[in-house]
Amino acid sequence: MTPQETKQQQLAEILALAPVVPVVIIDELVHAVPMARALVAGGIRSIEVTLRTPVALDAIRAIAAEVEGAVVGVGTVLDGYQLEAARAAGARFAVSPGASPKLLDAADAGELPLLPGVATAGEAMSLLERGYRHLKLFPAVPVGGHKLLGAWASPLPQIRFCPTGGISLSSAPDFLALPNVACVGGSWLTPKDKLKAGDWAGIELLAREAAALRTNR
Ligand SMILES: O=C(O)C(=O)C[C@H](O)[C@H](O)COP(=O)(O)O
Fold first, then answer.
1. Nearest CA to ligand 1 atom 3
2. Cβ count within 10 A of residue 7
3. Is residue 217 part of a domain?
4. How far, in Å, is the centroid of ligand 1 from the Cα of 111?
5. Does 216 map to a domain?
6. From the CB of 22, is ligand 1 less than 6 Å away?
7. Catalytic one of 5, 111, 129, 136
8. Which atom of ligand 1 approaches the CA of 141 most closely?
9. Pocket of ligand 1 contains residue 23 by CB under 6 Å
10. 123 is catalytic
11. Is residue 73 part of a domain?
12. Average pLDDT for residues 83-95, to the nearest whole number?
């Protein structure tokens, strides 16, 4: 296996853990571990912590060290420095909103599997040429939603997508029914008000609902 094939195999396993990858914004470090425990208790094991707050890397470190069963990833990765910092903190996968040549070079040189975002067939083809078999459609709903992905299934059958951006519990099934969708990403499992209130039981319930969604994989 080439290094890229190994990373794609790792991504396939991570994206198969549950129908939904929660996209999380953590404002307070103390929320990280109980939130991740609630998600895992509800059946959601892969968790994407976005690098949008100052505590994000520490949150990744805490979840990786303390939450049994969690597979923590890093989101909103824009460059190779962030990729390496997240790997060192314990992230097992990385997600980016798009794919710049420099970020892709850094991902090739490093060990962390990257799930890059695309919004056009041309971008997907460029990544296919670099060995990517798993991509994020971003922002999924504004760029065309499940109809766009359905239209790509026939000409681009080698690629499995994790559409993210604007998806909810009620719209997720339209995506998950497609043959080229591995899972969906979404922030609805960890709403700001529930994090702020420490409503871990509420987050576990949202995770349970998401984990019960059916996929077509
Ligand atoms: O920054 C990244 O790498 C991301 O993954 C961005 C997320 O896809 C969106 O923030 C999803 O947010 P919702 O539309 O609220 O579900």
1. 76
2. 24
3. no
4. 23
5. no
6. no
7. 136
8. 14
9. yes
10. no
11. yes
12. 98
The interaxial angle of helices 200-211 and 32-41, nearest 10 deg, is: 40
CATH for 78:
3.20.20.70
Q: What total of structural domains would you count in the chain? A: 1
Instruction: Note the pLDDT tens digit of each residue in 175-216.
Output: 999 999 999 999 999 999 999 999 999 999 999 999 999 877
- ipTM field: 0.91
Exposure string (b/e) for 172-189, b if CB count within 10 Å is 16 or more? bebbbebebbbbbbbbbb
Structure-token pair, residue 172: 């997720």
Q: Which amino acid is present at 164? A: T
The yes-or-no answer on residue 192 being catalytic is no
